[in-house]
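User: Quick sanity check before I run a bigger batch. Here is a single chain. Can you write out its predicted 3D structure?
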Amino acid sequence: MDNNPIGAYESVEKSTLSGRELEANVLMRAAMIMADARDHWGQGNHEARLEEALRHNQKVWSFFQAEITQPDNPLPDEIKKNLLALSVFVDKRIFEIMAYPEAKKLDILVEINRNLAAGLRGSPQEAPAGP
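Assistant: Done. Predicted structure follows.
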């Protein structure tokens, strides 16, 4: 029996969610970890929090890159091309933040993950109302 209740929950979650919902949850979790690093910038141990957030997000996007490039991936070629281009941007931003850390640089990564997760769930976030 799993003594880690979070691990047990995650195992059940993985076995009951659809592929899209699971992907959305993974993206949202990465967004939350990065937002936490951003929101607690300058507080104790923020360097370790930032490193964990960036590594986690990099793993998520590496997985997506691998899946997108599989020959049997059912996504239309145009979507695969756009997602790969987005993943290249995400990689570059991660390395930029590693080299020159700034809290505000995390904003775009958090928003990309949140928006993509919303799209996977079929509920894109509404654009903010203009002035």
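The mean pLDDT is 85.

User: Great, the batch can go ahead then.
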